[in-house]
Specification:
The protein is α+β, with helices and mostly antiparallel strands. The protein is built from two helices and five strands, in the order E-H-H-E-E-E-E.
């Protein structure tokens, strides 16, 4: 059996209008909630807080995603410079993750649905505590 194809979506920096804004679908799939996740990411990316992981986490929480299901990588390098790339995620159900990536090395924000790792996490490597 082959792995399912996962495609990344580059999203425009301009968020959708309020008339067509997607909504959280708590009983829906990760794919059904990707439009909202992407819209939130686009909104933060278009703001002055685009380089701050906390801004993405807080905006996703405000949109209804669960903070305790999130991960975020560092937004600064070990020499206190802005990270070239930052990732954040929301574990959805027991099998999927909504994953976003932003930063100078990424260009426009990228969002996608990926399978959860064996330990239930979404991101590989070190992530920072979401303790605010």
């Amino acid at each position: 059996m082959s792995e399912p194809a996962h495609t990344a979506t580059s999203i425009p920096a301009t968020p959708p209008s309020r008339d067509t804004a997607p909504e959280l679908k708590p009983s829906g799939s990760a794919t059904e909630n990707l439009p909202l996740f992407s819209a939130v990411v686009a909104r933060v990316w278009a703001s002055d807080d685009r380089d701050h992981g906390r801004a993405y986490v807080d905006a996703l929480v405000d949109a209804g995603f669960e903070r305790d299901r999130m991960q975020v990588t560092a937004d600064q390098s070990t020499v206190q410079r802005a990270a070239e790339s930052m990732q954040f995620s929301v574990a959805w159900g027991d099998e999927e993750c909504l994953v976003g990536q932003v930063g100078p090395s990424t260009g426009e924000p990228v969002t996608t649905v990926m399978p959860q790792l064996a330990d239930g996490r979404c991101l590989v490597g070190d992530t920072r505590p979401i303790d605010w």
